[in-house]
Write a structure and sequence with these properties.
Helix content of chain B: over 70%
Oligomer: heterodimer
Shape of chain B: globular
Strand content of chain B: under 5%
Strand content of chain A: under 5%
Number of helices of chain B: 16
Shape of chain A: elongated
Number of helices of chain A: 22
Number of strands of chain B: 4
Helix content of chain A: 55-70%
Radius of gyration of chain B: 23 Å
Strand order of the largest sheet of chain B: 1-2
Structural class of chain A: mainly alpha
Radius of gyration of chain A: 36 Å
Order of helices and strands of chain A: HHHHHHHHHHHHHHHHHHHHHH
Largest interface: A-B, 27 and 36 residues
Distance between the termini of chain A: 123 Å
Chain lengths: 417, 359
């Protein structure tokens, strides 16, 4: 009763302020800007909302009549719904967002399958089962200051998605009932994907939704992990599919790519992952004496050999360049050798020595040439310096001869006019 | 009669060769403890000659278009026999020439060699120094590499800040709003036709004036110099001084060869007009003191644009410097000019060093 009375007083005051300013009255915002907690909504905040910018008002979701300045604004007669229950949020949003005809007038390219996707997600299924702790539209997109995903301030902008997901999935207490790990965000932050996204600003780099889906978010099953990775790593996936590991992993129940590369905390792959050393992932399954163990060692040796050869050529070209020699052509060729190395590292996913050797051999051919060019440049440098030395000797000789000649003609002080 | 004497006779009969050479035979050079400064003008002239010779050789291969310039220089220095040497000597000689021209200019100021009747010798020399800097600015762009491209962009931007005529001047230099292939064509034209023509003319005037007025003796040692017996006071220009000058030229040639062999002039990467400017773009060292000063001036100085104030100040200083002989009359102004010259040397040195150290 007391709340109603104070709300009434706020309404009257807001109406008086609005009318004196001569504007279209919006009693919702007028009152809610004076309220606190989750009921607090300011005109400035709502003005940022994409819905407000497109002409929608509070009544579009909450019903009621904002033009009324008394309690009738929130009457049932005015269609007032009040607070939207969490369980009702997806359907309410879907009432517009699932209607292609309606959405076309605002954004014809916006998808309209979010609700149906959501209903297939773990979030959607749990919500349907009565679990209101799971994410609904407003948890990820925000409410009352909702911005399009292209806006860097949006919670669902690629740069912010991982943080948005981690608000629940990184909260040990909140997730305790679900018995799933909560270290995904911490792991992701150490990953090469996070580095690409945040440090290099590559918005196409994967974040949570890239692998798990957004509205239809669900963990990829063991069988479909490779499919998820292959959306970007196409060649590696093709080679893996054709390799003996495909069937072997499937029969052992191992999740494809994740078996060697992990999932959220994928670090930059290195050649040390191959071979038979302690850092190798091959030795997780292969043991000394089996064929795979031998191939693992061979692959590592070949790839490292090409890398060492590239470094050797780089070093001699650096020496030549620091001596002022022009070696840009050899530098360009070195890039081709590096391409061959990248290709060999992709071919590693065949887990066979022959395809990798083919790539490595083409790289070694180039590095042999560039090393020769580096040696040639150093020989040319030495030739120039020898030439200079001989020229300097000749110059010193001429200068000395001139000096002697001047002394000769000026003998007896005959320098004057 | 020896063949050489026959040729001389032949020329003498037709052109009065002996008469033409007579002034040279009678020309003398003062001998005193500052005489070695007299070599600087000759060394600068020698380096200009090197520039002309190597420039002509470069022209045989250089192609002045945005699509071909870089590649033609690259081809020259990697594929053409001794192309690297010609290009390196051209680049190093350009820098050494400007360096020796600056030294020559300051030696003239400190020895007050510009005083009456040599005012116009000074003016022609100063104009030659400006032309040499113009050679440097226009030649820097010709290989069409990244550094040169962006340095030219910055340099012409600064020219665009000159009040009233700035924008037109920038358009004139660039051949449009941006640095493009049109700018390259223009700079090539300035570098191989306009500037050499003007320089040759002015060098002629400069040498003629030196011939007409002779070589100055520093005023502070003139009394003691005059007290010397005539044979200890002067040496003949030909052959005594010229042979010494020849020694200096040979030494300069040795220095050029050493620089070209030990530190061949780099080419860098081809200019990409759509790429962002690399960090730390700087002009050639002889523009660096001005560039660094403009960087340090605040954007606004009261109501005025800081950069415009800087440009106007340098322009005014250049004009005053050009007119120094006409301002240097009394003892007081003499001291003022010497003080100003010391300040200019210290300022240029400090700002150039700061420019290299600054990021």
């Amino acid at each position: 009763m007391r709340l109603n009375r104070s709300l009434g007083a706020v309404l009257v005051l807001a109406a008086a302020v609005t009318l004196t300013q001569g504007q279209q009255p919006n009693s919702c915002v007028d009152c809610h800007s004076a309220l606190e907690g989750e009921l607090h909504v300011t005109p400035e905040q709502f003005a940022q909302d994409i819905h407000a910018q497109k002409g929608l008002t509070c009544a579009s979701c909450h019903g009621g009549d904002p033009s009324k300045t008394d309690e009738s604004a929130m009457s049932k007669a005015a269609g007032f719904k009040g607070r939207i229950e969490r369980a009702a949020v997806p359907k309410l949003c879907g009432s517009c967002h699932s209607d292609p005809g309606f959405m076309r007038q605002y954004n014809p390219s916006l998808r309209t399958d979010q609700l149906s996707q959501y209903q297939t997600s773990v979030h959607g299924k749990r919500l349907a089962a009565g679990d209101t702790k799971v994410a609904v539209c407003t948890d990820c997109h925000g409410v009352h200051d909702l911005r399009p995903a292209s806006d860097t301030r949006s919670k669902v902008h690629p740069l912010n998605i991982a943080t948005t997901c981690s608000r629940c999935h990184g909260d040990t207490q909140y997730m305790a009932a679900y018995k799933i790990p909560t270290n995904q965000f911490a792991s992701y932050k150490t990953s090469v994907h996070h580095e690409a996204m945040v440090e290099r600003g590559d918005l196409s780099a994967p974040t949570c939704t890239t692998c798990h889906g957004n509205h239809g978010a669900t963990p990829p099953g063991v069988g479909s992990v490779a499919n998820v990775c292959s959306t970007c790593h196409v060649f590696q996936a093709q080679l893996f599919d054709a390799s003996p590991h495909k069937a072997a992993f499937a029969s052992a129940g191992l999740p494809g790519c994740v078996t060697c590369h992990s999932n959220h905390g994928i670090s930059k792959p290195g050649d040390a992952m191959l071979g038979t050393s302690a850092q190798s992932v091959c030795t997780n399954c292969h043991t000394q004496g089996d064929a795979g163990y031998k191939v693992a060692g061979d692959l590592q040796q070949q790839v490292s050999g090409l890398e060492a050869s590239i470094t050797r050529s780089d070093r001699i070209l650096n020496r030549a360049e620091s001596s002022g020699m022009e070696v840009s052509q050899a530098r360009l060729e070195q890039d081709q050798a590096r391409d061959a190395l990248t290709k060999a590292r992709v071919s590693v996913h065949t887990f066979a020595a022959a395809p990798v050797r083919a790539d490595v051999d083409s790289g070694l051919k180039i590095t042999a040439k560039t090393f020769g060019e580096g040696q040639g440049a150093l020989r040319e440098r030495d030739y120039r310096r020898t030439g200079l030395g001989m020229s300097l000797v000749a110059i010193v000789f001429v200068v000395a001869a001139l000096k002697l000649y001047i002394r000769e003609i000026e003998k007896n002080g005959k320098s004057g006019s | 009669m020896a063949p050489l004497a026959r040729v001389r006779n032949w020329l003498d009969e037709r052109f009065g060769w002996e008469e033409l050479l007579a002034p040279l035979r009678h020309k003398t050079v003062p001998i005193h403890r500052y005489s070695y400064w007299y070599f600087l003008g000759g060394i600068t002239l020698f380096l200009f000659g090197v520039q002309v010779c190597t420039g002509i050789l470069l022209l045989l291969y250089y192609r002045p278009s945005a699509n071909e310039a870089f590649e033609s220089v690259q081809y020259l220095i990697t594929q053409v026999q001794f192309g690297w040497l010609v290009r390196s000597v051209h680049s190093w000689a350009a820098n050494l020439m400007i360096f020796t021209a600056f030294l020559h200019m300051f030696s003239v100021v400190f020895l007050r060699a510009y005083r009456k009747p040599r005012e116009l010798t000074w003016v022609s020399g100063m104009l030659l120094l400006f032309l040499a800097m113009g050679f440097g600015f226009s030649g820097y762009l010709l290989p069409w590499n990244t550094l040169a491209f962006f340095a030219t962009k910055v340099g012409t931007d600064i020219a665009g800040q000159v009040p009233f005529v700035g924008h037109r001047l920038m358009i004139f230099l660039r051949g449009g709003e941006e640095v493009t292939g049109a700018t390259l064509s223009r700079f090539f034209g300035f570098h191989v036709a306009v500037l050499p023509g003007l320089t040759t003319l002015l060098v002629g005037v400069h040498l003629l004036l030196i011939q007409r007025f002779g070589i100055s003796v520093p005023s502070r040692i003139e009394p003691e110099w005059r007290a010397l017996p005539p044979e200890k006071r002067e040496m003949r220009f030909f052959p005594n001084f010229l042979l010494r000058e020849l020694m200096a030229w040979y030494i300069a040639l040795g220095v050029l060869g050493a620089l070209a062999a030990f530190s061949p002039w780099g080419l860098g990467t081809k200019a990409d007009p759509f790429a962002p400017a690399p960090a730390g773009i700087k002009p050639e060292w002889y523009f660096l003191f001005m560039f660094q000063t403009l960087k340090l001036i605040p954007a606004k100085l009261g109501m005025l644009d800081g950069e415009v104030v800087g440009i106007l100040t340098f322009s005014l200083a250049g004009l005053i410097w050009l007119l120094v002989p006409f301002l240097d009359g009394t003892k007081r102004t003499q001291r003022l000019v010497t003080g100003a010259a010391m300040f200019v040397v210290a300022y240029m040195g400090t700002m150039t060093a700061y420019g290299y150290a600054a990021k």
